[in-house]
């Protein structure tokens, strides 16, 4: 075998060996884990301080895009909500049956909501 061929075989062998020896990344003792400090239930606020946002009330306007009676939610395409530092977006809000019965898909609405550990919950909703 020629020297260049042997060299290539050696390089390929070492490269493959290095690729297969992947180790788990080390976890820092100071790195917060989801179970310690971070809500992982989709309720994380989009801006501001996390602790301050929970329980905060806000009002917004938007268009109802879906009502899911099984999940107990109303999905609304809403404009920016300055009170909680949110951009315009489409999202599902928890809503009790009485609130879900007030609206239908396509309705333009004004609504109040509260930030909760389980997500954002509609406290009032009215057609425009």
Describe this structure in words.
The chain has helices spanning 3-20, 34-37, 50-53, 97-100, and strands at 57-68, 73-78, 89-94, 108-116, 119-127. By secondary structure, it is of the alpha+beta class. Strands 3-2-1-4-5 form a five-stranded antiparallel sheet, with no helix packed on it. A hairpin with a 2-residue loop joins strand 4 (108-116) and strand 5 (119-127). The longest helix is centred in the first third of the chain and has 18 residues, at 3-20. The chain is elongated, with a radius of gyration of 25 Å. The protein starts with a helix and ends with a strand. The model is unreliable at 27-52 (pLDDT under 50).
Characteristic key phrases:
single chain; 128 residues; alpha+beta; five-stranded antiparallel beta sheet; 5 strands
Topology:
Layout: H1 3-20, H2 34-37, H3 50-53, E1 57-68, E2 73-78, E3 89-94, H4 97-100, E4 108-116, E5 119-127
Antiparallel strand pairs: 1-2, 1-4, 2-3, 4-5
In short:
The protein has 128 residues and is of the alpha+beta class. It is built from four helices and five strands.
Count of strand segments: 5
Q: Unreliable stretches, pLDDT < 50, 5 or more residues?
A: 27-52
Mean pLDDT: 77
What is Rg? 25 Å
Tally the helices: what do you get? 4
Which descriptor suits the 3D outline? elongated
Q: Please report the distance between the alpha carbons of the first and last residues.
A: 83 Å
Strand order of the largest sheet: 3-2-1-4-5
**SSE class:** alpha+beta
List the helices and strands in order: HHHEEEHEE
Q: Strand portion, in percent?
A: 25-35%
Q: What percent of the residues sit in helical stretches (DSSP H or I)?
A: 10-25%
Largest sheet: 5 strands, antiparallel
